[in-house]
Amino acid sequence: MFFLLFILIVGGALYSIAFGIMVRDKHAPTGSFEVIDGLQIHYKDIGPRKTGAPPIVLIHGASANLLDMEIAIGRQLAETRRVILIDRTGYGHSQRAEDGYRLDVQSRIISKLLKRMNVPKAIIVGQSFGASVSMSFALDHKDQVAGLVLLAPIAYRWPGGVAWYNHLATMPIIGAIFRWGILPYYGSFLGRTAVEKAFWPKQAPENYYDNAAMSLLFTPSRFYASARDVVGLYDEILAMEHRYDEISVPTKILAGTHDVSVLTSLHSIGLNNEIAQSDLAIIDGVGHTLQHGAAVEAISAIAEVEAELLLQSEGAPKAYRQLSL
What we know:
The protein is an alpha/beta fold. The chain has one domain: Alpha/Beta hydrolase fold, catalytic domain (Rossmann fold, 3-Layer(aba) Sandwich), CATH 3.40.50. It is built from 13 helices and eight strands. An eight-stranded mixed β-sheet has the order 1-2-4-3-5-6-7-8, sandwiched between helices. The longest helix has 25 residues, at 2-26. It is globular, with a radius of gyration of 20 Å. The relative contact order is 0.14.
């Protein structure tokens, strides 16, 4: 039995290495790199540079990478605006920071990257976990934020826990066996189906799994980063949730009526009540992946933030700004 277990573990590890090489060759980086805090951080900078509006920074959620946001809304936005997409630390082709699960660590890396790119202020758009990072960014790096758009944000302590596989993946020894010996097989044979289920009740875009390089998720290091982020998020939210009234920039919140991952009634409605300049739109018939299922509404929300910023810069009275929007 021990010999058989040993063979299975070694075989799984060898397959994991082969799987990682295959994924790396199939999904090479499509953007540029900057060294931030000693880490290679992967990003894309697309769209026209001079449009009179602040750049838009798109921050992806857990399990994904920058291609998810690029496919959903990034390319369309880049037809008229400068758009910056970032692989969060440990995802896509960005290296993982020590304590990279911490929201302040992730937002600090983004802050330094934008400064390196000479971007003084930006509209920050985040989905799910990326929305939590966006709020951390807005709280700790206020001078770099022109406005916020939050898609299915995770903002408060929630009842229950997180999926069992996230806990398993972060456990010592057993977690390593799971990530190296089992996960690549799962990614090869069932990963596509699992990813597509996340779009319920909508369907995933055609060829989404390949176009968004989702097989990257099922490599050991990236899955660990995602699992560690999710497992640590409860405590991170606990430390941040009392500060939302400090956010003072125009903010749009979008939530879906069919979101079974993040409770709209808890997170989005509660957050809208705490941020002074926020507006909430609940989109009917859409689940958690609002960047895809409600792409039109998300782009409209960004345009509304831009319009409000323009009116503020022109010194329009508050009552007039509200009427105009």
